[in-house]
Amino acid sequence: MMQMTISKKPRKPAMRNEFRRQTELHTMLLPGTVMMIVFNIIPLFGLIIAFTNFKATMGWEGIFTSQWNNFRNFRQVFSSSQFGPMIRNTLGINLLGQFISIPMAILFALLLNEIRSPRRKSFVQTAAYLPHFLSWAIFGGLIKNLLSADGAMNQLLMGMHVIGQPKEWMADADCFWTICIASGLIKDLGWSAIIYLAAISGVDPTLYEVVDIDGGNRYHKMRHVTLPAILPTVMVMIIFAVSGMLNNNFTQIYVLQNPLNMERSNVIDSYIYQIGMQQFQFGIATAAGLVKSVFALLLLVGANWTSKKLTNSGLF
Questions:
Q1: Is residue 64 in a domain?
Q2: Which domain holds residue 188?
């Protein structure tokens, strides 16, 4: 009995075929990839100056030719008189801000989802998203005008007999955290709620029908269906918030900061800007940025581990 042999043509590698099928998508990714390499990967070599006696007059060659300084830049960062206050301000603004903004964004998304009229829902969304698209140079200017001595805030409070005379709110260091957190919440509340609205839209509608059958109302749907369904998304956002605990919105701080509120407005990012761009001590500024990045990585890993232990959901 003759055996028939069927010759099989060698298959092309699956990855090559997949790449060809997605050529357009990869082409769209190319500009972003190049930008990440140019602005995020290549500058990493500049971290060397955190460990050397680099001077601005050395030029870019000095990055690789300056001498090792036995961690002197790091010692100056930790021994600086500004180190304690800037850590306090950074963590205070971020902790209080995230403690308020995350629940508010979730609540806003839940309430927005309950609006049945598409026209009203679209109007509320547009009004809530609009401040996000204003730069902090514009929005911060509006905030400073609002809180100036002859601004609307003083006029309102004096009309209500809460205060007897105008007050320079931006000059009061004790008010800076409140102003910073409140202005950030107003500007980004609508934008922060988008991710939660997207998660809510993916909830299985049949789960709501089950609540209707059991005689539940909208509150029961939110509590027993919507919130548990979006919990993984909430945990991911909390992880991001914890990992970014040492990052402030530099543009916001820079716009609202002045010499009178410096005691409560000087954060790590503004310290790096002052040391690096104003005093040209690039080694110390790089050391401070590197320390911040290392602690941010540790916070990310710790927050992810805690999230997986408590909720079985995390980034990795």
A1: yes
A2: 46-311
